Amino acid sequence: MCSGNFAKCLGITLIPLAIIAILCNILLFFPGGVPAGKSTDITNEAFYLGGLVGSGLLMIFPALVFLGLKNNDCCGCCGNESCGKRFAMFTSIIFAAVGLVGAGYSFIVSAVAINRGPKCFLSDGNVTYPFSEGDYLSNKTMWSECEKPNGIVTWHLTLFSMLLIVGLVQVVLCAFQVINGLFGAICGDCCGCCAES
């Protein structure tokens, strides 16, 4: 497969993943699916914007660059037919690195949030983090400590798990593009890009 076509496939895959990450992060601002009374009722990690910025907006730029690589005009750069395509593949490595940083950030924030657990109302009316160091993950009976909002533990786990998986997949895809970009920069696009006019 040509390095440009492979990059385009990666870009097509990254767009829906970025949209999923953005939606998950937005939903985290509605604990248990209902509007929060105060911002202090929302889990702190939602405000770190791992899904919105890291796996979302920072991933849109690499995805768009990858999508456009196949259509890059690579003829006539410095008198060398493949110079433009090689340079485009080289610059895609920089955008892939930006994607790696964003997805890595989202992955780390999600892992921390899952380990910490959700912020919720306890029976005494206080809003706090009742769990410590992931102990609630293996003991579902502890979930009853969170009285409100209803289903907050499941909500928290589902959304942050989705962000964790999306971030991991994006890290892998961007790492593939770094390798693909190096290959394309060194060897050029195997399909050839200059059509006879």
UniProtKB/TrEMBL annotation:
GO cellular component: membrane
Transmembrane segments: 12-34, 46-67, 87-114, 152-176
InterPro entries membership: L6_membrane
Domain of life, source organism: Eukaryota
Presence of the UniProt keyword Transmembrane in the record: yes
Keyword Kinase attributed: no
Main subcellular localisation: membrane
Keywords, alphabetical: Membrane, Transmembrane, Transmembrane helix
Cellular location(s): Membrane
Protein topology in the membrane: Multi-pass membrane protein
Similarity comment text for this entry: Belongs to the L6 tetraspanin family.
This protein's name: Transmembrane 4 L6 family member 4
